[in-house]
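Q: Here's a chain of 220 amino acids. Please give me its 3D structure as tokens.
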Amino acid sequence: MAGVWRCMLPVVVLMCVCLWGSTEAVGGARSRPRPQRPPPKKPKVDPIDLTPPAQNIDIQQMTGTWFLLITASKCSYLINHGTQVEPTVMTLTHSSDQTLSVSTKTRRNHQCWEILQVYDVTPAPGKLTLKGGRPELDTKIVIGETDYNSYAIMHYQKRGKVTMKLYGRSVDNLSEPMLTKFEQLAEKQGFGLAYLFPFPTYSHCGVVDQNHVINCVPTC
């Protein structure tokens, strides 16, 4: 199960260079080198902050069942085991103005599991947060595109690493234009076809017994 949840995540490293110079005094004598101020650091920008959310997103219309169709990611688990992914379905419930309750069902070693989580609704429309044990472990979520009725493209970022997911209201409506749009958006994030992992569209889990429910509320 740990492998499934290792994958939300690409690292940005900022480097600062200090320049030193020297000047010549009148008459050719060398003056003492003066340290020059380093250029001001550019403010750190998270990759996901460059992804605009869908305009005028209505969280209430995002509720209900979503089937995971494709994931775009460079996480090592998917790269090594991408052909072994299991059918996954997510159900969103608008529990309050500030939160979305999330149920994710998938299969591991032929056993169905359910993971319960809470997404915090942020003041910015279309942006959510999955709280971690510490602030640096939070997962930022952006609803990139959706028509509410057939598809949703969601971006997840944890520790600077971004994952994109294409969800569908059903497993039968993965149209060619929708797939092409997702591939184009993934390409802009640096995910070529080698980093796109389709998920099975059959044998999704139904009711899961309590012994196989992982409660990540408020966090895991």
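Q: Can you summarize the key feature?
A: The chain is about 10% helix and 35% strand.
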